[in-house]
Amino acid sequence: MVSVTQKPSGAVEAPAPGRLGFVVFITAAAALGGFLFGYDSSVINGAVSGIQEKFGVGSGVTGLIVSSALLGSAVGAAVAGRFADRYGRIKVMKAGALLFAISAVGSMLPFSAWDLALWRVLGGAAIGIASVIAPTYIAEVAPTKYRGRLASFQQAAIVLGIAISQLVNWVLAQAAGGDTRGQLLGLEAWQWMLGICVVPAAVYFVLASVIPESPRYLIQAERLDDARKVLAEVEGEGVDTDARIAEVQALIASDHRPRFRDLLGGRFGLLPIVWVGIGLSVFQQLVGINVIFYYSSILWQSVGIDQGNSLLISFVGSVINILGTVIAIVLVDRVGRKPLALIGSAGMAVALGTAGWAFSSATGSGDNLTLPDLQGTVALVAANAFVLFFAMSWGVVVWVMLGEMFPNRIRAAALSVAASAQWIANWVITVSFPSMSRWNLSATYLIYAAFAALSILFVAKFMKETKGVRLEDMG
C-alpha cells in the first residue's frame, strides 16, 4: 500500500513564492476526489425516504442500502495503494472517477433495492480509492511547513461535497413539489439526486488529466526526465533537480515495505501505537457523526418536520460542517492536534447528551414521532453544535494524525489497519442506526454521547502531540 505520508517525493521544503500557488492548485485538484467522497457518501441522505417508498423496504433493508457503499469503500481502500504503485497516482484517480460515474448512472436507474445496493457498493469502491489516493498525492507534493493545512484540503473537500449534495437534494426536492418521489423529466427526484454525481465525476476526471504525476512515482518508475520536469514546475526552474532525484532515489532504496507482522508486539498483539491509531479511527465513528450525514433528513422527518424542510436543515448542517473544518484547518498547525481533539470531544459529549435529552420528550412511535417546540429547537441546535465540534476537531485531526503518528517502518501497514477499523466502525454505526432509532432515539444519542465522553479519556491518556515533529522522527 502507498504510504500517504512518506517523505514527499521531491516535495518542496521551501517552495518559491510563485510556485506555492501551483502546489495549492494541484492539491485542490487531487482533493476533488475527497469532494466526490463526501458527495457520494452523503447524497443518499436525501434519497432515503424516496427509496423506502419506491421499493417498500423497512428500516433493516434501508440500513443495508445506505451502508453498502462502506463495504465497497473497504475494498477500494485496500487495493488503491497497490494499483497506485504499479500504474501511478493519476491513472488510479481517473479509474476512481470512472467508477463514480458508472455507479451514479446505475444508482439512478435501479430495478430493485438490491441492485441499488450493488451500485452503491461500486460507488463505495470509488470512495475507498479517493480516500487513499488523494492524501497520498497531496503528501507527495506538500512542503513540511504547510503539510497539515494542505493535508486538510482532503477533509475540506469532503465536507464541501457533503454540503453541495444536501443543497442539490433540497433543490431537486423543491423542483419536484417538495416530494423526493415527485417527477422530474420522467424520473423521480431521488433518482436525479443519485445520478447527478456524474457531473463532479467528469470534472474530477478532467482535472486528473491535467495535473502532473507524483514525482516520487515517476522516480520510482525510472521516468527521470518526466520527474525533472515536474520538480521544476513545483519548485521552480532554479532547483537542483538531480540532487532532488538522488535524494528520493536514496529514500526509495532504503524503503522498507511494511507487512502486517511488523505491527505485532506488545501485550495485546499489536504495537501500542497501532492500537492508538485504531482507537482514534473507531472513536471518530462511534460518536455517530455519519448518522447526521446519512440519515438527518429522515431523522427530522421522524420527529414531525416535513420532507422539504428536513432537506434544508440537512444543508444548514453541512454548511456548519464546512465552517468547523475551516476552523480546524486554521488551528491544526497552530494550536496542535491534541488540544483540538480534547475540545471537540468535550463539545460533542455535551451536544449529544443534550440531543438525547430533547429526543426523550418525543411522543408517538416508529416514523410518527413529534417533539414539543422547545425540545425540537434544542434538538436542532444540539445536532448542529455536534457537527461543529466534530468538524473543528476529530473530522480533521484524525486524518492528519493517521498520516503522521506512525514510525516510517510501519506507516503504510499501520495506516491500512487503522483505516480498515474506521470503515468497519462506520459500517456498524450506519447499518444499526435505523433499527436503533426505532427502538429508542433518545437512548441512541446518549450512547453516542457516552462514546464522545470516553474519547476524552482516550485522547488524554494515549494520544501524543505530533505538531511540528518531522515524519522521520516519529517513533
Notes on the structure:
The protein has helices at 17-42, 44-55, 59-87, 89-108, 113-139, 147-175, 189-195, 198-210, 215-220, 224-235, 241-254, 272-286, 289-302, 307-331, 337-359, 373-391, 394-404, 411-462; strands spanning 183-184, 187-188, 363-365, 368-370. With 475 residues, the protein is an all-alpha fold. The protein folds into two domains: 17-211, MFS general substrate transporter like domains (Growth Hormone, Chain: A, Up-down Bundle); 261-474, Growth Hormone, Chain: A (Up-down Bundle). The strands form two sheets. A two-stranded antiparallel sheet has the order 1-2. The chain has a two-stranded antiparallel sheet with strand order 3-4. Strand 3 (363-365) and strand 4 form a beta hairpin. It is found in: Cell membrane. This is MFS transporter. Keywords: Cell membrane, Membrane, Sugar transport, Transmembrane, Transmembrane helix, Transport.
